Amino acid sequence: MAGEGGMALLDDAARLPGEAGRDLVLKVDAIVAGVHFFADDPPADIAWKALAVNLSDLAAKGATPRGFLLALALPPDWTEDWLAAFSQGLQAGADATGCPLLGGDTVKTPGPLTISVTALGSVPAGRMPVRMAAKAGDAILVSGAIGDAALGLALRLDPDAAWAGALNGADRAHLLDRYLRPQPRLTLAPALLAHARAAMDVSDGLVGDLRKMLKASGLGGRLDLDAVPLSRAAAAAVAREPALLERAVTGGDDYEILCTVAASEVSAFRAHAAALGVPMTPIGDVVASTPAELLLSRGGAPVSLAQGSFSHF
Amino acid sequence: MAGEGGMALLDDAARLPGEAGRDLVLKVDAIVAGVHFFADDPPADIAWKALAVNLSDLAAKGATPRGFLLALALPPDWTEDWLAAFSQGLQAGADATGCPLLGGDTVKTPGPLTISVTALGSVPAGRMPVRMAAKAGDAILVSGAIGDAALGLALRLDPDAAWAGALNGADRAHLLDRYLRPQPRLTLAPALLAHARAAMDVSDGLVGDLRKMLKASGLGGRLDLDAVPLSRAAAAAVAREPALLERAVTGGDDYEILCTVAASEVSAFRAHAAALGVPMTPIGDVVASTPAELLLSRGGAPVSLAQGSFSHF
């Protein structure tokens, strides 16, 4: 199909020069109105999220973005104004991340707005950190802060929740924005390439994603819930309603980076990441347990969670 | 998002070694149940079509497939059996075309089944034929036969159409199959790279797609409708109902290759293509007309069509 839609997309296959000595890194994600975002979100924010969730995967692989392709399925009630705002948001996202739109396809759907983005990046050949590469003894670290987006979604669904009384205006705005506009950790790439063993992005909840990483590596691990980094806003919410900690560490949409690093490299990795503007917090370690499982602790005592990983699927 | 669905897709970003001296060729297409295919088509055929329509774009660029990514939005009524059959069909398509599945994402949708495929191929650096490269004096050629899929769709929608009385069983099967299982012309790649100036695949109807190519090149053209290659089945249908010729040359889903070749190279190109098993038929030429337009003729006399290009959008 030729892809002639309302957008000024390229009308032929896209071309991208090959890079000797580098590997391509590729990721596709689809987001659906009513499932992954609200249909009445500002179109520029929807565009940003569609791009950002993929760039988060590239970021976790230490990749430099090279471009993306977009497949857009428009519902019956689409308008030219909506599409123009979406396109502007997409262009702004492409500019902000150095990841140009290479091509696309626009189709009609009788269903909800559905956006599929395929992002391409590259890394030095053979250097992409993979999920399954954790080793016993590695430290487990996570970037930024966890749980903001899950709390932002909760706040969006119930703006008058009792715990929201603990938030000031800036806290509320912070949580809502973290759900609406995830920030892929692209700047972390050089530090990941230099130091990380296993790496993935946290999209379906910290605990569940860490379990996946450990399972892929065939190892167990320990996660100190007290060490999980929280923003001021999330900390205020959890202080008011302690049960929210579970939502914070199992909710989705963090788009932070989870990785393991040899114990001897933790200091150097954290310093490198900090120099790139990304705080990395040690939250546990990888162990050679039988059976391979993730042990959670709080206040030094083991805990379990009522629910597992939040999953979109 | 991690893309944990029912399919055995890779659970991390995909990696593909860079190729020095070659360009990547990239194309994304989305197909939607009820728009681009029938929801009750066999799942393996749906999978084949999702892959084939993208590989057709790679074929038009002379590209060698390197792999593809899949975003699958499953409707509420999906079943494990359906997904297993879809996956098997996809694997069979990947094997048949030498284009492996590199990664994917599976999500739920309250709407119809929606499949987005991003296909990657490569060509020698700087050699990708583009749509806008036609020159005045070039011959216009098309591969295979035109109109089968449009007639197959018509037959599917109205199996008892009067014109269908002109078809034997093999004809009916041929037309239906050409709609259900388009065959990307990947084998043509070396001939296109060696000889073609402009090239694109015919997906939205021969006449409309040729108009797009000429417009992109800023030139006019002449198309001899009598020269348009028809299969035995399509020829039988058109002989019974002459108005079907218009449907044949404006209907979609041919997935043949349309290209222009310098007049001096037509013989060599056709011989090269024939040696690769692909018949290429001259159907007109590119002219420097003002205004730039496509002139159609039949029996040596100018004709016009009631409708323009069939478009899915």
TrEMBL record, chains A, B:
Reaction mechanism of ThiL seems to utilize a direct, inline transfer of the gamma-phosphate of ATP to TMP rather than a phosphorylated enzyme intermediate. Pathway: Cofactor biosynthesis; thiamine diphosphate biosynthesis; thiamine diphosphate from thiamine phosphate: step 1/1. The lineage of its organism: Bacteria, Pseudomonadati, Pseudomonadota, Alphaproteobacteria, Hyphomicrobiales. Its EC number is 2.7.4.16. InterPro entries: PurM-like_C_dom, PurM-like_C_sf, PurM-like_N, PurM-like_N_sf, ThiL-like. This is Thiamine-monophosphate kinase. The gene is thiL. It comes from Alsobacter metallidurans. Mg(2+) 3 binds at D12, D57, D201. Substrate binds at H36, D253, F310.
